[in-house]
Structures are given as structure tokens and as C-alpha cells.
Amino acid sequence: MTVAAQKETLEFQTEVRQLLNLMIHSLYSNKEIFLRELISNASDACDKLRFEALGDDALFEGETELRIRVEYDKEARTVTVSDNGIGMNREEVIENIGTIAKSGTRQFLEALSGDKAKDANLIGQFGVGFYSAFIVADEVTVTTRRAGLGPEHGVRWISKGEGEFTIENVDRPGRGTEVTLHLREGEDEFLEPFRLRNIIHKYSDHISLPIEMKAEDKDEYETVNSASALWARPKKEISDEEYREFYKHVAHDFEEPLTWTHNHVEGKQSYTSLLYIPRRAPFDLYERERRRGIKLYVRRVFIMDDADQLMPQYLRFVRGVVDSDDLPLNISREILQHNRMIDTIRGASVKKVLGLLEGMAKDEPEKYQDFWQQFGMVMKEGPAEDFANRERIARLLRFASTHNDGAEQTVSLDDYIARMQDGQDKIYYISAENHTAARHSPHMEVFRKKGIEVLLLSDRVDEWLVSHLTEYDGKPLVSIAKGDLDLDRLEDEKEQEEIKQAEGEFKDILERMQKVLGEEVKEVRLSHRLTDSPSCLVLEENEMAMHLQRVLKQAGHDVPVSQPILEINPTHALVAQLRAEQDEAQFGDWTRVLFEQAMLAEGGQLEDPAAFVRRLNGLLLKVAGQ
């Protein structure tokens, strides 16, 4: 069947146009990376063919030797990178080159500042390998055919990178992809074979496929890279520079990794792992269903990308490779889910990563703080997901606290315990919508007065964290905004006597307030927490924080209606005013104002804000004598 040579001109997605413009200007100082990126793409295409051919040998089309070629033409001023990998059909070309099919793209582009150095890091973090061709080329031609389709299914894509591209069907006998760069004026250095070979040695020597160039003065190709799997070599033979360059290839990252761990395991199971921790979080880190970044090989043969069974969700930022000597070559994702060998490899890999982080936290605290700023929120998912390593993960967590002035999360649970007061047997925390709200919460007052440290939690994941991390080192984590606060051990006899006396004096007032509020509150009681504020709301120990309830409601989730407890401060002037009020209507207004302002202080929302303002204004006018 003949495919019509349909030719059409299409526009790039808006985000692609923006990205191309930014990239050309931001990455120009490191323009040679275009060759590294195109070679990495070619290597991935060959890996994918090898994997798909495990189930359909016909995809090789009689040519099983996979390779990458780099060629140049001084007269035409072109550089061409070609591979005999999986190739693409017409739809895949449009999807992979004409658009950036990633959510969050717009927010990513808005984060670009115009500072070339900073933007270069962000652009590299986004992973835009193919588009780097336009740094040195004013026109790019891609000719490709997907393995398994007939020669008439070839596709040619051409663009000047200025907003549109043309695409047409062509005859292409061989499978794979050929990318031809028509160099800009002044880029003739990339037409010199010595320069091209140097770039390949610098960036791509570790790639396990042969990268071929024509030998000078000969009409035959020769391999110009080592073409051996870097992770399979002994560690002592691999330089740090080689490790860093391999990371950039496997992670499609422009920046160097923060650290890595390389392990050869022999025994009942034999496998190798080379695992990296990136320096910077990818822009889609918080989309939990996104790629994990671990490539699985069996005896140096690529099996699959993003093998999520090899690393838990809370370590989804880890990049690298695992190469097993024992798994079958035809293993599938479904089989991986129930494979004991994979479970063993995963467990050992997790321990290696946690050990790497523990060493960094102990020996390089500043470097660990850099890590935490990038990946801390993801690590906080760990205690809920990985019960076996809960204590180790908890030791790695960092929090803001009242011990420090800033909002930076630098306090470990071990730090907190080391500073606990005599008689204190709990780790206290408060969660709020933001750091400022947590620090200034009315619940903090008694802790501030007594000098007791409180962890300040304001990340959305924190409520999830503390619902699963209920204790550490034998000490319970306790919210100061939930439950009946037990500070008996930290109160002297005089304080306890004053509280008992006040409870007797206020019994009738509390009952009257309860009657006014009815079902809106579970109870009205005197507070042990407050020293400066007149009132606060308290939830039962197992209830969800109010700010989180509001966030979930806004997102359309059904949230159970909670009945908070209203606590009042018996020494506050407003409570004294309420106590002295004889008019029942005015008493009701004072009661509701104390309740509603406590609700606002918790980040809650009032059902009738206008009524609150009206009540408040009326009481202010009365106090002012008008």
C-alpha cells in the first residue's frame, strides 16, 4: 500500500516557540552540548528498539547491530547524527518535536527570569535535548521511519525554529532517525572532525553503543567511543568526570549530580546499581505519576525506562541504572510487580540511597541542606510509604521551629530531642497554612512563655506526615492545636491551683457560651494554651487541621464536618467583658465574635463574614460609649 506524500506546514506549540528562543540565548555559551543531546536521544532510540524486539524479532529487519553515526559535510555546512534505532511514525514526530506534552510547562516558562546563567540551569532541568540543535543550526531536518513499517512510511520534518515546521511522508529504506543540522554562520568549528571527536570523548564516551565516524582519508567508519557500559566497569577505573557525564546522559540533565553511589553485588543475586541524586528538582517532581528515572538492564541489555518497581515514590527523584545478571531478558512490567529478585534489589537500593543521605547529613550538612531545599517535601512522603525504613527516614527529616527565627527547615528530630526541657516527654508541633500563621498562632502562647520548642509545619504534606509518623525515638509527636493539652509536668503548683479555681468560677459562663454556639462547637472550656489571645479553636487529636480541610474543600473533596472545641482565656480583658455582660443578646454577640475570630486565626472561613463585621462594629461602638 502506498502512503500519500502528504506535506503540511504546522505551527509549533506556543511553549516550544518560547523555549527555542530562550534556549538559543541562554545556552549559547555551552553550545557544544547539542551533540551530546542528539547522541543521547539516538542511544535511547536504539535501547527502545532492543527492548521492543524482545517480543518481536522482526523489528530488527535483519540488522541486529545497533549503532550511532556522526557525519559532517564541509561544502553543505551540515552535521548529521543518525541511528538505526526504533524510529518514529508521523504522529510520533509531531508529538515529540512539535509539542512539549508535559503539564506544568507554562509555570516552568514563567519561572525563567532573563538571567542567562540561571535560565540555562532551568532549561537543562526541563530536559529539552532535541531543541538544543537550534543553538548552532538555523535549519534542522529530521528523516525517520519506525521499525516494522514499510519504506513508504518514512517521514521528513524540517524547521528553522522560528514558529513553524513542515512535515511530509517520504520513502526511507532503513529504519531509525537521521537529524541533519544546517549550521549557522560562524559555527564552522563543528565541521572539523577533530572537534567533533573531542566532544564525543568528553560527553559520550560512556555510551554502550558504538558511535561511528568516518576515518579520515578513508571511506569506512570507525568507533570513536569506548562503547562499553560504564556501570559495568570497576569503580577504581572510573573518574568523577566520567560519572558526572554519564549522569547527564541517563538523567537528561544539564547540571552535574549532587552525589552518587555505585555498587556491584554478588552472591545469590548478582546485579550492579549506579544511583544518582540530582542537584536540582525536576519541574514535575510533585506529579507522583511522573517518571521515576531508573533504567533497568539485564546483562547490559536495556529492558525498560522508568522502572517504578525499583524505587519507591518518595525517592522518585533518584536517577540511574540497575543491571541484573539473573532476571530473564523478556521480563515485563507486570512480572516485575511480583518478582522476589526485584523486591530484593529495590530494598537494597533504598538502603543505599538512605545511607548516602545519612552520610551527607552527618559529614556535609550544608550540602544536605541544599538537598533538603530541593527534595524535602518528597522525602516527607516516606514515613507513610516505607514502614520498614520509617525511623531512618524520620532521622533525615528537617523542620522549621521556634528555635530559629527564619522559615528554613533545618531542625532534625534529634536536634529537637537534644534541646527538650527537663520533664518534657513529647515532641510538640503546630501545622498551619504558612510559616507566619504557624509562628503567630494563639496556640503558641503558653509554649513561648515556657520556652518550649515547637516544630512549625506549613507544607501541605505535613498533615499526611504526622498522621503516619506518630512518634520518634519513643517520644510521641503531639499537635499543640489538638486534644487536651497535657502540660502538668511543666506547670508549677501555683499555676495548677489557679487553673482549678478558674474552672469553678467560669462554669456558668462556659455553659451559657455553649448554649449560644450550640452544634457549632463540641465544647467550650478554659484554655491552658493562651496567655495573650482571648480565644482559640482546638480539634480532637485525630481530626484534620482546619487549613487542610479548607484546601481539600476548595479542590472539590468531601470533607467530614468537624466540631471544634472553643477555648477561652480567663485572664483576657475581652473575656472579662463577656463575663460582666448581663444583656443576653450582647452576651451572644461577644460569644460569637470570640468564636469567629478564633476561626479566622486558624485559617478557617466564616459562613457569614458580613454578620461577623456587623457584630464586631456594634460591640466596638458600645465599648466606645456610643
From TrEMBL:
The keyword Membrane does not apply. PROSITE patterns: HSP90 (PS00298). It is found in: Cytoplasm. One of its GO terms (molecular function) is ATP binding. Residues 551-626 are annotated as: C. InterPro entries: HATPase_C_sf (IPR036890), HATPase_dom (IPR003594), Heat_shock_protein_90_CS (IPR019805), HSP90_C (IPR037196), Hsp90_fam (IPR001404), Hsp90_N (IPR020575), Ribosomal_Su5_D2-typ_SF (IPR020568). One of its GO terms (cellular component) is cytoplasm. SMART domains: HATPase_c. The keyword ATP-binding applies. Keywords: ATP-binding, Chaperone, Coiled coil, Cytoplasm, Nucleotide-binding, Stress response. Pfam families: HATPase_c_3 (PF13589), HSP90 (PF00183). Residues 30-187 form the Histidine kinase/HSP90-like ATPase domain. Residues 1-333 are annotated as: A. Residues 480-519 form a coiled coil. HAMAP family: HSP90. Belongs to the heat shock protein 90 family. Molecular chaperone. Has ATPase activity. PANTHER family: HEAT SHOCK PROTEIN 90 FAMILY MEMBER. Homodimer. This is Chaperone protein HtpG. It comes from Thiohalobacter thiocyanaticus. The gene is htpG.
